[in-house]
Amino acid sequence: MSDSTDFFAGLHHVQLAIPPGAEPLCREFWGGVMGMTELAKPPVLAARGGCWFRGGGLEVHLGVEQDFAPARKAHPGILVNGLRALAERLEAHGHPVQWDGEFPGHDRFYAFDKLGNRLEFLEPHRA
């Protein structure tokens, strides 16, 4: 009998909610500030609004939610290379970061996208 964890192969994407009409802000943040590439959504899904981005093997899907409220506690934890450079980039674009040294074996900080969704960025300590 196999362990149920044998089924997991990786994380395909994370989805964050956005309000109707917020795609330009998402393009500015995820494409401009974060440097990710926008993906073409399949036509049936594109009709729902929102947008998708990919960078470094991670996809972020931004889906329209009519009664949008930003995720202030729930968040994706995104592993990165060059955490300090990313923090500088975010701050240079008006997105303050909050450093938190309480996650064992990692440096990390929190920031918010242009819509108020919480994001966590982590980098493992170098040996």
Structure, described:
The protein is of the alpha/beta class. Helix content is 20%, strand content 31%. The protein is built from three helices and eight strands. The chain has helices at residues 23-33, 43-46, 83-92; strands at 13-18, 37-39, 51-55, 58-64, 77-79, 98-99, 106-112, 118-124. The strands form two sheets. The protein has a four-stranded mixed β-sheet, with helices on one face. The longest helix has 11 residues, at 23-33.
From the spread of the alpha carbons, the general shape counts as globular
Strand content: 25-35%
Which class of secondary structure composition applies to the elements? alpha/beta
Count of DSSP-assigned helices: 3
Give the low-confidence spans: none
Strand line-up of the largest beta sheet: 1-4-3-2
β-strand number:
8
Percent helix, as a range, is: 10-25%
* Euclidean distance between termini CA atoms: 37 Å
Strand and helix order: EHEHEEEHEEE
Whole-angstrom Rg = 16 Å
Q: How many strands, what sense, and barrel or not for the largest sheet?
A: 4 strands, mixed
Mean pLDDT: 94
